[in-house]
Amino acid sequence: MRILIISSPHSAPLRSIVGTARPRRGYNSGSIILPAMLRMTQTLAQPAAHSAPAGTTPVAELRALRKIYYKPDGSVMVEALRGIDVTINRGEYVAIMGASGSGKSTLMNVLGCLDRPTDGLYLLDGRDVAAMSDDDLSNYRGLKIGFIFQAFNLIPQLTIEENVATPLFYQRVPRAERIERAIETLGKVGLGDRLGHRPRELSGGQQQRVAIARALVTRPVVLMADEPTGNLDSSTGQAILNLFEELHSSGMTILMVTHDPVVAERCLRVVRLKDGLIEYDRQQPGYRGRKTASSDLANLGVSDAVRSPAQSH
């Protein structure tokens, strides 16, 4: 089973992809604060955690996790996460929802190892990320997480296969193998006939497929997507969601931040935040995901169900 997270090596999102960005700390340590201006008005009971099947290690496990941002004088500016308990098991397809300021973006940043929690426990694929140095955490993130972002974050000067191969460069994979794996992964997302093209020569849906291939090429355990259809028209967005369903049916673990309830309906489970706490965590009774996947898709973690780039407009 695999999980992906989706977000140029010089931008914060691309550093997330390639695993070279160091985790951002609170403002009192001199780093940039995430724009999580919350009003702490209510204490909500935490739901019971989803336990992992016997004999398996959860992809992500959070216990009493808190994230506090501080003012320069050291006083609390905002408590973005106020004691989160949640378990993400292998093979799950989870939507993270919430209003602006609910803490969902902060939660995704912590899950993606882009920010460290202030307090509490976070185990990523069984390892305590708090015990890692910044460099070790950066490398671990690059191996375990695939990022997909709303804005694609492709490098315009590179071909699509060079874009997809970029994370492998930072993992010191030999060039020939990097290109081979990039071409293979692009073929699986329906872009095998677009090799040699640059991002500006592709449609929005095709660019998002390149971003998905870039997230998959490292063979991560989890895919994390932040509003992956937000910059796409409705029909193209549906094609991308179909691809996510194929990934999930192949065994990929997917976490997706979305504000759209229609998109959330395509997920197996919904975790909704409010004021830094979990408002509810529940399975979708009418889950519409696919039940089967090709053997090639299962091996790579990518769907070959959408074979034509024309389907992405």
Describe this structure in words.
The chain has 9 helices and 11 strands. It is of the alpha/beta class. Helices cover 29% and strands 23% of the residues. The chain has helices spanning 12-18, 104-111, 134-144, 160-170, 175-188, 204-216, 234-249, 261-264, 295-300, and strands spanning 2-6, 60-70, 76-88, 93-98, 119-124, 127-128, 145-149, 222-226, 252-257, 269-274, 277-283. The longest helix has 16 residues, at 234-249. Strands 1, 4, 7, 8, 9, 10 and 11 form a 7-stranded mixed sheet that branches. Helix 4 crosses helix 5 (175-188), helix 4 runs parallel beside helix 6 and helix 6 (204-216) runs parallel beside helix 7 (234-249).
Provide a brief overview of the structure.
The chain is α/β, with parallel strands linked by helices. Helix content is 29%, strand content 23%. It is globular, with a radius of gyration of 19 Å.
Number of strands: 11
Most strands sheet: 7 strands, mixed
Please write the string of helix (H) and strand (E) elements. Answer: EHEEEHEEHEHHHEHEHEEH
**SS strand fraction:** 15-25%
The computed structural class is: alpha/beta
Distance between the termini: 30 Å
Please report the number of helical segments. Answer: 9
Radius of gyration: 19 Å
Mean pLDDT: 80
Low-pLDDT windows of residues: 5-12, 20-49, 290-313
